[in-house]
Design a protein that fits this description.
By secondary structure, the chain is α/β, with parallel strands linked by helices. The protein is built from 13 helices and 10 strands.
């Protein structure tokens, strides 16, 4: 790959994105799936002090959107991520304190099938957070397997908004066809859909390239949030084909993926070296250039510091196009979320 010298090394000051009169989002957020999840991310409670430092660093540097879910946490630690965010936000005193935005996703559990069950779930999350939810989101659609369940749950999200318990309503893992149906119903109640969260990275472009979700969201004024922008760590450059890989499921998956994405990683590394950035910073910045709010996770301050380095600059159009071409040539993309609708 031949890369032209960067054309826009000047600073790009990041500004907050106003979703409505009472809710604004930072240009990059922090995903907190790992804050409480033992199974996939190896969380232990002794990590809490370090996670508070991660939270403090993020907010002080302008990353004030924290995305969680009431299902985040494993076993007895169910809801642990929300509990930690509540503790951290109450303890924090410093720059951007008034801009902290706690966004949570309410799970479509099989035992939740009435609108009141969703209102109760929102109130339980608010109790763990120690404050009202800023942005409440439907974690996943049930249209593909329990279509009868979904409308009551969505109506419950609307009830939370109408009762003044949340500042904004969002969706997660929805496609454009389903979004249009929801918008029609919510418009009748005068409730705006503020955000849509989808799996999006250099290794997961399906919702945009195949479903056309961005065009629909741009038309409807819905802000896009990209979860897993580093593809579970595959795009960080930390792991090599013949080197060390994570333990458990991720390690098995990485061994399958790394040989198939070699050209993309090489191209990513070339641009990173030219930019004097890390591969992770380039991958996150690519999402920003595509009009998304990426929400990479961070378990320590070193990882958060790296994520922060993705802000304040922009890849050139040529670099974005080069990465797009490499992405199109990849033999194998990330497994798509099974709940993603069309």
């Amino acid at each position: 790959m031949t890369t032209q010298p960067p054309q826009n090394l000047d600073n790009h000051p990041e500004t907050f994105i106003d979703v409505n009169s009472s809710l604004s989002l930072s240009p990059m957020g922090c995903g907190t799936w790992a804050w409480g999840n033992r199974l996939l991310w190896g969380y232990e409670q002794k990590m809490d002090e370090g996670l508070q430092q991660v939270f403090n660093l993020a907010v002080s540097r302008g990353v004030t959107l924290f995305d969680t879910g009431d299902s985040y946490g494993t076993g007895k630690l169910q809801g642990r991520s929300e509990t930690l965010l509540g503790q951290f936000s109450q303890a924090y005193q410093g720059p951007n304190q008034d801009k902290i935005c706690l966004a949570t996703k309410l799970a479509a559990y099989p035992w939740r099938w009435t609108r009141q069950s969703m209102v109760n779930a929102g109130k339980a999350s608010a109790q763990r957070l120690g404050r009202n939810i800023d942005l409440v989101q439907m974690h996943w659609p049930t249209a593909n397997y329990f279509p009868w369940q979904e409308w009551p749950l969505l109506d419950g999200l609307g009830d939370l908004y109408e009762q003044g318990l949340v500042k904004g309503v969002g969706l997660s893992n929805y496609g454009p066809q389903r979004i249009k149906q929801i918008i029609k119903r919510f418009t009748e109640r005068n409730i705006p859909i503020a955000t849509l969260q989808i799996q999006y990275s250099l290794l997961s472009t399906y919702p945009v390239t195949e479903l056309g979700v961005k065009e629909v969201c741009d038309e409807l004024g819905i802000k896009l949030i990209a979860y897993s922008p580093l593809a579970l760590g595959l795009l960080t450059g930390k792991y090599q084909e013949n080197g060390q890989v994570p333990k458990g499921f991720r390690g098995v998956f990485f061994k399958q993926m790394l040989p198939k994405i070699r050209p993309l990683l090489q191209g990513l590394e070339e641009i990173a070296n030219l930019r004097e950035k890390t591969m992770a910073q380039v991958a996150i910045n690519w999402c920003i250039c595509k009009g998304f709010i990426p929400i990479p996770g961070a378990k320590n301050c070193q990882q958060m510091e790296q994520n922060l380095g993705a802000m304040g600059w922009r890849l050139s159009e040529g670099e974005v196009m080069e990465l797009d071409k490499l992405t199109q040539k990849v033999d194998k993309q990330m497994v798509q979320n099974p709940f993603q609708t069309k």
